Amino acid sequence: AQSVTQLGSHVSVSEGxxxxxxxxxxxxxxPYLFWYVQYPNQxxxxxxxxxxxxxxxxxxxxxxxxxxxxxxxxxxxxxxxHMSDAAEYFCAVRYSSAxxxxxxxxxxxxxxx
Amino acid sequence: xxxxxxxxxxxxxxxxxKKSLKCEQHMGHRAMYWYKQKAKKPPELxxxxxxxKLSINESVPSRFSPECPxxxxxNLHLHALQPEDSALYLxxxxxxxxxxxxxxxxxxxxxx
Lengths: 113, 112
Description:
Number of strands of chain A: 11
Structural class of chain A: mainly beta
Number of strands of chain B: 11
Strand content of chain A: over 45%
Distance between the termini of chain A: 41 Å
Largest sheet of chain B: 7 strands, mixed
Helix content of chain A: under 10%
Structural class of chain B: mainly beta
Mean pLDDT of chain A: 92
Largest interface: A-B, 22 and 22 residues
Helix content of chain B: under 10%
Radius of gyration of chain A: 13 Å
Oligomer: heterodimer
Order of helices and strands of chain B: EEEEEEEEEEE
Strand content of chain B: over 45%
Number of helices of chain B: 0
Radius of gyration of chain B: 13 Å
Low-confidence stretches of chain A: none
Shape of chain B: globular
Largest sheet of chain A: 6 strands, mixed
């Protein structure tokens, strides 16, 4: 079955440290890939997306992600964490233009002062 | 500010009540979605409307009844809900079905 896996339900980093949130998908066909962020009591906000073209995708708030077909991964990174980055992050995939989005289980990012 | 507006933000209702959730977008998007999200879980798709026609129903119980009166509005009618239906209900829209979805801030629903 097609799925998306986020490794680590909770990641904690120090302010100013590198953020790395992991996402792997299961498919031999490259899907459409997304990262969403959800702050408390809010809906989901699109951070970035990959459809075709350049494999390194830059998003909002200094985040970026790299599509690696050989590793079936789409990990999210940010060079320097800020307190305001504390939130829930969801990786999501769509395997065709007509299919629904499949969300990963989410990773809660905490930032230590 | 979110471009998808959901009302009300909070709703408490009894199991015999009838209520409706409302979602509105003015981005010209032709696909609209309802999701249910339980605490510490990802959103679960409930319904998809494409060009104002229901295209996906993820086997949702009939006590949830969606309606799309026009291209900007999406309603979710609720009747005889159960305590386990308490959750955050999120509406989303996209330009077309294969475009990224824009989410509202949700309605937090509590069933007494």
